[in-house]
């Protein structure tokens, strides 16, 4: 039974069926451009980033999908903007590139494409004009009525009391975090946040259920749902094969 398609798409489905049965059509393809068009509407989005003091968030601004010839993995490079604020003042911001990859697998019984073995391959700092780091003295001045200076001030009781109020009592963690800002090293601060960024990115992907069921309203997906066997990345294309493994 043909799906509820336009007459043109029904003809395309019939022609495709004949080509599959005759062995002349072994696979259908999705190019990098087509897949990038599919993922573009999902960006940008913003997620919270837990910090020991103040509040943080990261925004995934845009993404570019690629299919390297040396691997069977789908790879997505995401441009991220990271910001941390203490008492409503921005103390850190940076752009970073995050690389995420996954293996595509097709399950004929459920007519669904699954992305498995998802991982964050890298998070790199981008050195650009967006970067900003406020030093620890700036933070101390925001927390205390009188400015204090020097690393020794970080150990003072007045600052500990102030930190307890804005860091939910986790004073030692807050102090260790603020020490990262002593030398204004943007990379060092990003390194501190990498584990949390990795966790949040993977959690976001899991929430979106990394699977896709073929849609009968699209004639190409209708054909593959009934005759497709497997998928693979080959020659910078995501290929949907109508044949078993070679």
Explain this structure.
The chain starts with 6 loop residues before the first helix and ends in a 5-residue tail after the last strand. It has helices at 7-22, 32-39, 136-143, 157-166, 171-179, 186-207, 219-227; strands at 27-31, 45-49, 55-66, 74-86, 89-107, 112-126, 132-133, 211-213, 230-234, 237-241. The protein is elongated, with a radius of gyration of 25 Å. The strands form 2 sheets. Strands 2, 3, 4, 5, 6, 7 and 8 form a 7-stranded antiparallel beta sheet that branches. Strands 1-10-9 form a 3-stranded antiparallel beta sheet. It is α+β, with helices and mostly antiparallel strands. The chain contains 7 helices and 10 strands. Helices cover 33% and strands 34% of the residues. Helix 1 runs parallel beside helix 7 and helix 4 packs across helix 5 (171-179). It has one domain: Uncharacterised protein PF07273 family, DUF1439 (Bactericidal permeability-increasing protein, domain 1, Super Roll), CATH 3.15.10.
Task: Pick out its properties.
single chain, 246 residues, alpha+beta, Bactericidal permeability-increasing protein, domain 1, seven-stranded antiparallel β-sheet, three-stranded antiparallel β-sheet, 7 helices, 10 strands, 33% helix, elongated, DUF1439 domain-containing protein
Radius of gyration computed on alpha carbons = 25 Å
Mean pLDDT: 84
The H/E string reads HEHEEEEEEHHHHEHEE
Largest sheet: 7 strands, antiparallel
* CATH topology term: Bactericidal permeability-increasing protein, domain 1
Helix content: 25-40%
In the CATH hierarchy, the architecture is Super Roll
Strand content: 25-35%
Sum up the overall morphology in one term.
elongated
CATH class annotation? Alpha Beta
- The CATH fourth-level homologous superfamily: Uncharacterised protein PF07273 family, DUF1439
What's the total helix number?
A: 7
- Give start-end ranges of low-pLDDT stretches: 146-156, 165-169
Tally of separate domains: 1
Total number of beta strands:
10
Helix/sheet category = alpha+beta
The N- and C-terminal alpha carbons lie at a distance of: 30 Å
Organism: Alteromonas alba
Protein name: DUF1439 domain-containing protein
């Amino acid at each position: 039974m043909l799906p509820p398609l336009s007459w043109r798409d029904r003809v395309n489905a019939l022609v495709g069926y004949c080509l599959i049965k005759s062995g002349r059509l072994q696979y259908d393809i999705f190019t990098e451009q087509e897949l990038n068009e599919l993922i573009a509407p999902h960006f940008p989005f913003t997620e919270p980033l837990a910090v020991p003091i103040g509040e943080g968030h990261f925004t995934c601004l845009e993404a570019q999908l690629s299919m390297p010839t040396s691997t069977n993995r789908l790879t997505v490079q995401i441009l991220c903007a990271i910001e941390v604020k203490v008492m409503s003042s921005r103390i850190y911001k940076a752009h970073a590139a995050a690389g995420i990859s996954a293996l595509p697998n097709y399950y004929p019984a459920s007519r669904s494409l699954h992305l498995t073995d998802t991982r964050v391959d890298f998070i790199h700092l981008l050195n650009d004009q967006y970067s900003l780091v406020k030093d620890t003295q700036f933070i101390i001045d925001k927390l205390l009525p009188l400015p204090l200076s020097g690393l020794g001030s970080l150990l003072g009781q007045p600052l500990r009391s102030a930190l307890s109020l804005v860091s939910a009592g986790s004073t030692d963690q807050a102090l260790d975090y603020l020490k990262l800002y002593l030398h204004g090293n943007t990379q060092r601060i990003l390194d501190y946040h990498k584990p949390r960024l990795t966790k949040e990115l993977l959690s976001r992907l899991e929430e979106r259920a990394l699977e896709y069921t073929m849609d009968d309203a699209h004639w190409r997906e209708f054909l593959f749902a009934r005759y497709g066997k497997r998928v693979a990345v080959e020659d910078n294309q995501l290929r949907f094969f109508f044949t078993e493994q070679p």
